[in-house]
Amino acid sequence: MIGKISGRIEYRATDHVLIDVRGVGYLVYCSERTLAGLPGAGEAAALYTDLLVREDVLQLFGFPTLVEKEWHRLLTSVQGVGAKASLAILGTLGPDGVSRAIAIGDWNAVKAAKGVGPKIAQRVVLDLKDKAPGVMAMGGTPAATADATDVDVIEPVGAPAARAAPAPSSAQAEALSALANLGYTPGDAAGAVARAAGEAPEADTPALIRAALKLLAPQS
């Protein structure tokens, strides 16, 4: 299994890039959002990858962070959601948007992705709601950009990623853990934290916990 590729971009297309790794070209399919964030041809790049294996095809899909890769894996586990639909959802919402939409049950946001109908969007939210907290807690560590000394590196799944600073979602992860310790279900906790974070993106952990508790409090 190929879990990460670092190399130089040989060329870019509308839905994929060709990354040259020591003379071997890897065709990697990406969302529009991911493609927009990649450098031009001839530049070094690194992507986490997921390999789709079928009887008649082998396809690599690339993601800038482990969180996005994990959401792709989960999205494609939902009946009726293939790799193309998953990339459309991630390209439209981004990993943070997917986390928030699923946590608060906003299937209309999922439906905004090209080719995703209301039934599929509702199924995505229903099937993955309780899995949102685990993905949100992962943070958003990016794949380090390759340079001239490491363009020939292919790392296996599970390779440790360098982490110079806490991920922006660390406050959300800590808030989720705190709510879980208070006895709230993963789905309820994730929904409250996602709403609180959406209303106050810069809030620290204590502020998120207070806001989430207010949202979870019984309405009189």
From TrEMBL:
An example Gene Ontology CC term for this record: cytoplasm
Cellular localization per UniProt: Cytoplasm
InterPro entries found in the cross-reference section: DNA_helicase_Holl-junc_RuvA_I, NA-bd_OB-fold, RuvA, RuvA_2-like, RuvA_C, RuvA_C_sf
Entry-linked CDD domains: UBA_RuvA_C
Entry remark concerning the domains of this protein: Has three domains with a flexible linker between the domains II and III and assumes an 'L' shape. Domain III is highly mobile and contacts RuvB.
Sequence similarity: Belongs to the RuvA family.
Protein name: Holliday junction branch migration complex subunit RuvA
Organism in which the protein naturally occurs: Roseobacter ponti
